[in-house]
Structure formats: C-alpha cells, structure tokens
Amino acid sequence: MTTFLREERNRLELTQADASKAIGVGKTTFLRWEAGYPIPSDKLIALSDIGFDINYVLKGCKRDTLPAASTPGTALQTSHADLTAVPQYDLSASAGGGALVVAEHPIARFELSKRWLEQHNLHNKKLTVVPVRGDSMEHTLHDGDLTLVSLIDDLSEAREGVCVLRFDDEIFVKRIQYDFKTKGYKVTSDNNAYSGFFVEAEDIESGRFTVLGRVERVLQRTKV
C-alpha cells in the first residue's frame, strides 16, 4: 500500500503537503501512511473525494473485476468485514451525447466503509457505481468521474436533484425538477452551454422516460 498511495499522489500531481491539507490531516500523518501505517476508513473516503483511486491504494488494482459466475442477487464478498461491496454495471451515464445500456450484469465492484454509508444514510439503499461521460454537468460532474448512485423503484423517490435518467435507449446524468402541475420533469444541465428540456407526462406514462437513480456522491474525480 505504501507505493500505491505515493503513486496515486504523484498521478494527481500533489505534494504530501497538498494532499494532507486537502483531507484535513497533518503532513506527518500522511508521511506515516506512505510509510505503511493503516489509513482510517473516513480518510480513505476523503482521499477518494479528491481523486485518489482507493481500490488501487489498498490493493494495487484500479478496480476488482467480478468472477464470471457472479449473477444478480449474488452477495458480493468483501476483503474486510467493515466494508460493503458496491457493484459497477456496464453502462455509462452520459453528461452529453448519451450512451446505451449494454449489459445488466455487474462487471466490477468497489468496497466502501459500512460506517461511512451509515453516516450518510446510504446503508439501506441499493447502490451502484456509474461513470460519467461528457461535460454538460461541469462544474458539478466531470467526464470520467465515478458516481455513487442509489437506485430507485418509484419515481416519487426522485423529485429533484442530480439523477441518472433513461430516455428511450439513452442514459443521462442531469439535474431534474418535478412539475406537480403538469406531472412532468424539467431537465437541465449545470453547464450553461447546454440547453434544458421538458419531459411530458405522456413520455413517463408510455415508459419512454424514467429516473433510474439519484447521484449521492462522487467516489472518484478526474479533476481536483
């Protein structure tokens, strides 16, 4: 882990002083981590927030590829009892032109602290990791960011906020606001260069449009 933490810091072009300041610890503490001392779970999350690939820091791999035998509903095993496995599916949330869902089986997983999930009231939610593609949500989300998304079963669970949407065969990440009068959705981008649009009630009723989940957190940023 010593080399991996240092490599990630170098990849992000951060000094030890920069990295330690960004996550609220002393430089000496960060030096100890790079020397091999264990990193607390909450600080791993903080490192993730500023762009560190935590799977690489802990294990030397960018992500854990799931065994071919894994199927939906199969419990994912974790390397530590205090971690929860969150799957990544083979789809991209497009913040620009759109992307097709090409598979429903999980292709990778990320291990998150159970304590951190409880602190953010995410421990009882169905979670997945979704990568962002495009620039229409800058400066909130950037191309290549990995987002933690809570999947929903009922549209009433997502009336507003940044969400993952499906319109026909395209997957987007956009900001939404429900209109109670028309029973439709106003869909906008955080990048003013992109125009918003309105989803009519008939598009929802016909199944053309739905909200797949809410973006809860950015697990890994491509830009610091």
Summarize the SSE layout with pairings.
Blueprint lengths: L1 H10 L4 H7 L4 H8 L6 H9 L4 H6 L4 E2 L17 E7 L3 E2 L11 E8 H6 L7 E7 L12 E6 L8 E8 L2 E10 L4 E5 L8 E3 L1 H5 L3 E12 L4
Question: How would you characterize the overall build of this protein?
Answer:
By secondary structure, this protein is of the alpha+beta class. 23% of the residues lie in helices and 31% in strands. It contains 7 helices and 11 strands. The protein has helices at residues 2-11, 16-22, 27-34, 41-49, 54-59, 114-119, 201-205; strands at residues 64-65, 83-89, 93-94, 106-113, 127-133, 146-151, 160-167, 170-179, 184-188, 197-199, 209-220. The strands form 2 sheets. The chain has an 8-stranded mixed β-sheet with strand order 3-5-6-11-7-8-9-10. Strands 1-4-2 form a 3-stranded antiparallel β-sheet. The longest helix is centred in the N-terminal third of the chain and has 10 residues, at 2-11. The chain is elongated. 30% of the residues are buried. Mean pLDDT is 81; it is low at 64-75 and 97-104.
